[in-house]
Amino acid sequence: MAAINVTNVRVLNNPAMFKDAFKFEITFECLTPLPDDLEWKIIYVGSSENSSFDQVLDSVLIGPLQYGTMRFVFEADGPDINKIPSEEVVGITAVILTCSYWEQEFFRIGYYANNQYTDPELMENLPPVPIPEKIQRTILADRPRISRFPINWSENPKNVQTLQTASSTSS
């Protein structure tokens, strides 16, 4: 049984300019007390061809947790345009929000995002060097891709591995 149930994620500032912060309001239920932190991350997909251009925009730790419903706003600066191939700045990309416990990802929600120039002339004739101040980001918030993964909520895998390593070296 999952210890955390994510009940709602809202994209708050949408559309926004390319350099503006991402803002997500996250609501979740804690179904059993958790002694350690949840780790939330916002990841910007910088290239459809190569994951090395993905950027972790921010991560936040929340915990320990008791029973109940929690809500918070997770805000992260926009991506570093210099770390994105210039030919992939404008167009469709994705932003991903993940949550992990004990370094085990159990929740992922991905959104397609469309980056385009607000000036039709620039859309017709893309400049060779992107101009981030003139690019608008629109997240397709009504069509998220949600994945949930089963994890071990009761034993920290690091502790189990440490115990196994210690017992095998003492034999």
TrEMBL record:
It holds the Pfam family ASF1_hist_chap. GO terms for biological process: DNA replication-dependent chromatin assembly. InterPro entries: ASF1-like, ASF1-like_sf. The keyword Nucleus applies. Keywords: Chaperone, Nucleus, Transcription, Transcription regulation. Belongs to the ASF1 family. This is Uncharacterized protein.
